[in-house]
Amino acid sequence: xxxxxxxxxxxxxxxxxxxxxxxxxxxxxxxxxxxxxxxxxxxxxxxxxxxxxxxxxxxxxxxxxxxxxxxxxxxxxxxxxxxxxxxxxxxxxxxxxxxxxxxxxxxxxxxxxxxxxxxxxxxxxxxxxxxxxxxxxxxxxxxxxxxxxxxxxxxxxxxxxxxxxxxxxxxxxxxxx
Length: 177
Fold this sequence. Notes:
This protein is mainly β. It has helices at residues 75-78, 103-106, and strands at residues 8-18, 23-28, 41-45, 50-61, 64-69, 85-89, 110-113, 117-126, 133-137, 143-147, 153-157, 162-165. The strands form two sheets. A six-stranded antiparallel β-barrel has the order 1-2-5-4-3-6. The chain is elongated, with a radius of gyration of 19 Å.
């Protein structure tokens, strides 16, 4: 992401046309909440195109959104948006309840324990349908899967950039041979 894109968060992928009146649809990125609303400014970015447009209306359906955009009233005007990723200014994100986090805010945080110190950094958050798993990249090629549960992840400090965990006995040795 370029410096011009700082402060923008990926919220949708694979923009497609929807009808002749300039509506577009996209698959929502997993951010936990339907957060696109009228008035929000969106950035549409593809390999060959980047433009900022304001939402006139947004209709959410499962993991997709249908957007009517200001100034886009025909399929011809919407055509340059096809294939774009959609970004929202981070200041427009919905505040989540305490103890819940946007995935993009967790990626990159350092993971540490009181006894063993630094374990690595969060590379991804894997959605399991139950407790999410932090994919932590450690030294060398070592990867750890840490359940993102309150009983294990004792402290998340976004400002300081770390997650402190208290793993149950054996969790960090599960992949040891």
